[in-house]
Amino acid sequence: MSESYMEKALLKLARQINAYDEASLMSLWEKYAEKVRHFEPTKRWEESVLVFNLIQSTRLKNQLFNYNWAQSRQPGEPPVELDLAALTAPEKNAGRLRDAEDDAPEPVTEKKDRRGKLLTLTPKNGK
User: Which residues are within 8 A (CB) of 90 and not within 5 positions of it... i.e. 6 or more apart?
Assistant: First the structure.
């Protein structure tokens, strides 16, 4: 089967991203989540969205790998349904993104169930 130029480029990019460790990528999560949250009609914003999604996809890939690896190590047990949305947000940021004017600290919870974030991208000031 012949790979197209686009597919080859995407596979090359995937190999490059896969070479980075998740911790290094996750250290950039907040920075790019904030850039994505504040829309501006520029190429810079579009690139930030792509970087943010690369970080998210790497985390998802690692979580899926770990989940499937753990499932394969437990023969005979029925598979547990997997919540994909809970796999992409960093654990320390299990709540919502804060607004710049929100000075209240994030609530501290002891729950082990960590959910992913849903970024609500709405224009400010009715724009």
Answer: 26, 29, 30, 59
Cβ proximity of 55 and 32 under 8 Å:
yes
The tens digit of pLDDT for each residue in 47-90 reads 999 999 999 888 888 888 888 888 877 767 665 666 655 655 55
Q: Tokens for 92? A: 């320390």
pTM of the model: 0.55
Environment class of residue 51 by beta-carbon count within 10 Å: exposed (0-12), middle (13-18) or buried (19+)?
middle
Q: Which two tokens stand for residue 62?
A: 């690692």
Cα 107 to Cα 4, 10, 98, 116, 118: the distances in Å are: 48, 39, 11, 16, 17
